[in-house]
Design goal:
Strand content: 15-25%
CATH superfamily of the domain at 89-275: Transposase Inhibitor Protein From Tn5, Chain A, domain 1
Number of helices: 11
Order of helices and strands: HHHHHEEEHEHEEEEEEHHHH
CATH architecture of the domain at 89-275: Alpha-Beta Complex
Largest sheet: 10 strands, mixed
Oligomer: single chain
Length: about 400
C-alpha cells in the first residue's frame, strides 16, 4: 500500500507543535487525532479500524499501538516505560491557537461537563468563532466531593506562562462557578474575570451605605447598568469590583456579571462568548467525537484521551475558521442578525475531508473575529433613590 502522506504530514506538524513530548508520544497523539477525524468517533475500535485501512495494517495491530497512548506506565511493556502527562500539552495547545493572533486579546471560558455519574471534566477553552478549543482540563470522578477552585487555579496557572503581560485575557464563568476565591485567583494571574453572579447576591455601589440585591440593577428587559462598588455582603468574601448588569429583550433573565475591569472598559455582551464553550462540549460528545459512548471509568486515562480530542478539535476549528474567514461578504445572504449557516467545526470537517481525499493534510490558521469595543451610553448617574424607584412595583 502507498505511504499515506496526509497522516505523515500531520504527524510532522504535531511533533513540531509539541516539542516537549517524546517522539513516540507525539506520533501517537498525531495518529489518534487523525483517526478521530477519519472515524468521527473516539472509540478505540473505530479509530483503529479507520487507521488500519489507511496504513495497510491489521486493526488489531493498530489498536494495540493506540492503547499505549492513554495507558499508564505500569501497564506497558519494556524498560523505558513512560506515560503521557496531559499537562504537558496545555501550553503548546494555547500557543498553537494564538500563533499569529492579530490582537493580543483572548477570551477563555471555564466550565464543567459530566459523563453520567462516572466522570466530570473541568475544561478551559479558548473561545473561537462559535466554539471553543480545549487548552487545559482536569478529569475527576463523578459525584465525588471536593473543591473545584484549586483545579481551576492550577489549570489557568499552567496557561499563564504562555501569555506575557501584554495580553488582555478574559476568563468567563457561569453562575455555578461563582466565588470570591476564584475571582481573586484570576485577578492574581493578571487576567480579568467575567463571572456571572446569582440574582439573589448583594452589591453596594461605591459611596452607598446600603446593600441591594443584584436583580435590582437590571429589573426588566432593556435595563443596563455598569457600576463600580463591592459584591458579597460577608466581610470574608467581599470584593471590590464592577457590576455589569444587562437584560436584553427576548432573554428570560438578565446577565449580572462581576469583573475587575473599570465600568467604561468592559461590556456585559462579552459574556456571551461563554456559551461557545458549551458548543465545544457538544463537539466532544454527540456533535462530533461521541465521547459519551466511552466505557472509561479512570480519570487518568480519560485525561490522556482528552489530549487527542483537543488536538483533533483544534485542527477542525483551525481549518474551518480559515475557510469561513475566506468567504467573501457579498456571497453571504443578508439576514436581520449575523448567523452562521454552518458551524465552524462542520465546515472544517468538510474542508478537511476533501483535502484528505486529494492527498494532503491542510494546515489552516486561526483568524479570530474582531473584538467588539465596550459600548458607551451616557445616561443619568445612578442614585439609590432612582434604583428604588425603578424597581418598585
Amino acid at each position: 500500500m502507498p505511504r499515506p502522506e496526509p497522516l505523515y504530514q500531520w504527524a510532522d506538524r504535531v511533533a513540531t507543535r509539541f516539542p516537549n513530548l517524546s517522539r513516540c508520544q507525539a506520533r501517537l497523539l498525531a495518529w489518534y487525532s487523525f483517526g478521530l477525524v477519519l472515524a468521527q468517533a473516539c472509540g478505540l475500535d473505530r479509530v483503529a479500524l479507520a487507521l488500519a485501512a489507511l496504513v495497510g495494517q491489521s486493526d488489531g495491530t493498530v489498536r494495540q499501538r493506540l492503547r499505549e497512548f492513554y495507558r499508564p506506565a505500569g501497564a506497558k511493556r519494556g524498560r523505558a516505560r513512560t506515560q503521557l502527562d496531559p499537562t504537558a500539552c496545555f501550553a503548546p495547545l494555547l500557543a498553537w491557537v494564538v500563533d499569529g493572533w492579530p490582537e493580543r486579546r483572548l477570551a477563555l471560558a471555564i466550565d464543567a461537563t459530566a459523563l453520567g455519574d462516572r466522570l466530570t471534566v473541568l475544561a478551559v477553552s479558548a473561545v473561537y468563532r462559535g466554539c471553543g478549543v480545549p487548552v487545559a482540563w482536569a478529569v475527576l470522578r463523578g459525584n465525588e466531593p471536593g473543591a473545584w477552585n484549586p483545579h481551576w487555579a492550577r489549570l489557568l496557572a499552567a496557561l499563564r506562562a504562555r501569555l506575557d503581560p501584554s495580553w488582555t485575557v478574559l476568563v468567563l464563568s457561569d453562575r455555578g462557578l461563582e466565588s470570591a476565591e476564584l475571582f481573586r485567583a484570576v485577578v492574581g494571574l493578571g487576567w480579568h474575570p467575567l463571572m456571572r453572579a446569582k440574582a439573589g447576591g448583594c452589591f453596594r455601589p461605591a459611596g452607598w451605605r446600603r446593600w441591594h440585591r443584584l436583580r435590582r440593577f437590571a429589573p426588566r428587559p432593556g435595563a443596563r447598568r455598569q457600576v463600580r462598588g463591592q459584591a458579597y455582603r460577608l466581610a470574608a468574601a467581599r470584593l471590590d469590583c464592577t457590576l455589569l448588569a444587562r437584560w436584553d429583550e427576548g432573554h428570560e433573565a438578565p446577565w449580572l456579571v462581576l469583573t475587575d475591569l473599570a465600568p467604561e472598559a468592559a461590556d456585559a455582551a462579552w459574556y456571551g462568548w461563554r456559551a461557545w464553550a458549551e458548543q465545544s462540549f457538544k463537539v466532544m460528545k454527540r456533535g462530533g467525537w461521541q465521547w459519551q459512548r466511552t466505557r472509561m471509568a479512570e480519570p487518568e486515562r480519560a485525561e490522556r484521551l482528552w489530549a487527542a480530542l483537543a488536538v483533533a478539535t483544534l485542527w477542525l476549528l483551525e481549518v474551518g475558521g480559515a475557510a469561513e474567514a475566506a468567504i467573501r461578504p457579498e456571497t453571504v445572504p443578508r439576514c436581520p442578525a449575523p448567523a452562521r449557516r454552518h458551524a465552524v467545526f462542520r465546515r472544517g470537517l468538510a474542508v478537511l475531508g476533501a483535502a484528505l481525499m486529494a492527498g494532503s493534510a491542510p494546515a489552516g490558521r486561526f483568524v479570530p473575529e474582531a473584538w467588539p469595543e465596550p459600548a458607551t451610553e451616557a445616561g443619568p448617574p445612578l442614585t439609590e433613590e432612582s434604583l428604588l424607584l425603578d424597581t418598585s412595583p
